[in-house]
Amino acid sequence: MPDHDPTPDRTPDLDIAVVRLDPDLPLPSYAHPGDAGADLHTTVDVHLAPGERALVPTGIGVALPDGYVALVHPRSGLAARHGLSIVNTPGTIDAGYRGEIKVLLINHDPVEAVTLSRGDRIAQLVVQRFERARFVEVGVLPESVRGAGGYGSTGTGSRP
Ligand SMILES: O=c1ccn([C@H]2C[C@H](O)[C@@H](COP(=O)(O)OP(=O)(O)OP(=O)(O)O)O2)c(=O)[nH]1
Ligand SMILES: [Mg+2]
């Protein structure tokens, strides 16, 4: 770590009530100042054959304030080293949810199994504010430059 960290730790913006359903495992925590994701741990040993998935408990329950959502993101190190990801990435933890946060891990490696031990950090939780939309039905949508183009409509090469 440099003498002067250019990303100093912030005063937390928000308190979130957490229960530890497994008191021997740590609370979610940020690895570095400025990190967006707080790491979540598995409470169980996991063995995933190639292509296999498993719903893995984290031992954590939260009560998010109204207007907030927590998103369960994969960890890039596990993805790069082992092909490990999350089936429904990012998982959505609703403000009203009071159950245990679980992570639907999947082993995308075509050959190697993935083995994780109880206590390993398996995913990261990003807490965000969100907008509650009112879906207002109209007959025709306003025009835009993109229009209905999508799914690669701009091509893959560099653009002028
Ligand atoms: O990765 C995840 C995704 C969801 N959940 C919990 C929290 C969330 O609030 C609840 C419902 O998730 P979601 O809305 O994604 O699932 P659904 O299939 O739509 O179920 P439901 O009908 O219960 O909303 O399950 C997790 O613990 N981990
Ligand atoms: Mg739902």
Automatic annotation (TrEMBL):
GO terms for molecular function: dUTP diphosphatase activity. InterPro entries: dUTPase, dUTPase-like, dUTPase-like_sf, dUTPase_trimeric. Keywords: Hydrolase, Magnesium, Metal-binding, Nucleotide metabolism. It is an enzyme of class 3 (hydrolase). Residues 26-155 form the dUTPase-like domain. Substrate binds at R75, S76, G77, N88, T92, I93, D94. It catalyses: dUTP + H2O = dUMP + diphosphate + H(+). It comes from the Bacteria. This enzyme is involved in nucleotide metabolism: it produces dUMP, the immediate precursor of thymidine nucleotides and it decreases the intracellular concentration of dUTP so that uracil cannot be incorporated into DNA. PANTHER family: DEOXYURIDINE 5'-TRIPHOSPHATE NUCLEOTIDOHYDROLASE. This is Deoxyuridine 5'-triphosphate nucleotidohydrolase. It comes from Nocardioides cavernae.
